[in-house]
From TrEMBL:
Keywords: Iron, Metal-binding, Oxidoreductase, Vitamin C. Gene3D superfamilies: B-lactam Antibiotic, Isopenicillin N Synthase, Chain. Belongs to the iron/ascorbate-dependent oxidoreductase family. The keyword Transcription regulation does not apply. Residues 198-303 form the Fe2OG dioxygenase domain. InterPro entries: DIOX_N (IPR026992), IPNS-like_FE2OG_OXY (IPR044861), IPNS-like_sf (IPR027443), Oxoglu/Fe-dep_dioxygenase_dom (IPR005123). This is Fe2OG dioxygenase domain-containing protein. It comes from the Eukaryota. It comes from Datura stramonium. The keyword NAD does not apply.
Length: 348
């Protein structure tokens, strides 16, 4: 595939290059246990259904997830209001050492090998809100958020706090399907040591319309895999996300993931690949800008700070030993953030 994919966009904003066909999983049943029983009585069990969605690429859609279209429209509207503030106002909200707040364009550099600069996108991190007098607030990814002034953006904090909670419920529902697909108890990841005190991070993203040119190292977001367990992604109707199903292929083949109205794109992260011993793969992905302004909203679900991520017993055998050494969640995340974000001292 031509590495300049994304130049010839049709009227729907989708390039003439390859377009990926992803599975779509319906989360509408209110009774997970009944749904599992019904699905397992059918020729295609839930485990096979979910595995077929993940083994190919680690990317899939979820629909009927319980978050209304109207509320998603409000979240996007509030996100746009933030990013359309003057840069000097946004820089007053610059991310802190806990990765809360605003990240300007080029702050993040996801693909040091192929990018000449950083990502041509700006973002805003919102994490789990923990009062400063709570002992948990001493942990690297816990603490108070950086909130815009209510007089400047009325209702903004309330909208984002509500979305953070609703997205958490969706990602936990997906984690229960993951558990079943790995022949674990449905509530395996709900345990205190896993998602009992999760690191759950909402990140608003804005691509300002710069045209990407992969052959010259210019990307909206450089090629990378996500760090944690699950990423939930909401997008507007501008195409730009690409996935590479085989990161070791030469040349790599990139396919567009088209927006699907009312659906979230879900992708599985590095920690799940480690837990599952490579059964579920963390898939390389990137964003190419086509000259249009683009907004997306990512929600990253990781386990607790102290969780030891190691190969699950159901995913290893004598002939298939663990491929990855155990690592603590906090350690892995801190290193990945350090590797990909600008030093805060560079803004002083």
């Amino acid at each position: 595939m031509n590495n300049k994919a994304g130049w010839n966009m049709n009227k729907d904003g989708i390039a003439s290059a390859n377009t990926s066909v992803l599975h779509c999983i319906d989360l509408s049943s209110p009774d997970i246990h009944t749904s599992i029983s019904q699905l397992k009585q059918e020729p295609l069990s839930l485990s096979l259904l979910y595995a077929s969605a993940c083994l190919d690429s680690g990317f899939f859609y979820v629909v009927n997830h319980g978050i209304s279209h109207e509320f998603m429209d409000e979240v996007f509207a509030q996100s746009k209001k933030l990013f359309h503030l003057p840069l000097e106002e946004k820089m007053k909200l610059l991310r802190n050492e806990k990765h809360r707040g605003y990240t300007p364009s080029l702050d993040e550099h996801l693909d040091a090998v192929n990018q000449i600069n950083g990502d041509y996108k700006e973002g805003y991190y919102i994490g789990v809100e923990i009062p400063e007098d709570d002992p948990e607030a001493q942990k690297p990814f816990y603490g108070s958020n950086v909130w815009p002034n209510a007089g400047t953006l009325p209702g903004w904090r309330e909208t984002m706090a509500k979305y953070h909670q609703e997205a958490l419920e969706v990602t936990k529902a997906v984690s229960r399907l993951i558990a079943l697909a790995l022949d674990l108890d449905v509530d395996f990841f709900d345990r205190p040591e896993f998602l009992g005190r999760p690191i759950a991070t909402l990140r608003l993203l804005h691509y300002e319309g710069k045209l990407s040119d992969p052959s010259n190292g210019i990307f909206g977001a450089g090629a990378h895999s996500d760090y944690g367990l699950i990423t939930l992604l909401a997008t507007d109707d501008v195409c730009g996300l690409q996935i590479c199903k085989d990161k070791d292929a030469n040349p790599q083949i990139w396919e567009y993931v088209p927006p699907l109205k009312g659906a979230f794109v879900v992708n599985l992260g590095d920690m799940l690949e480690r837990w599952s011993n490579g059964i579920f793969r963390s898939t390389l992905h990137r964003v190419l800008g086509n000259g249009q302004e683009r907004f997306s909203i990512a929600y990253f679900l990781e386990p607790s700070h102290d969780c030891l991520v190691e190969c699950l017993p159901s995913c290893q055998s004598k002939d298939n030993p663990p491929r990855f050494p155990p690592i603590k969640c906090e350690t892995y995340l801190l290193q990945r953030y350090k590797d990909t974000h600008a030093d805060l001292n560079s803004y002083k």
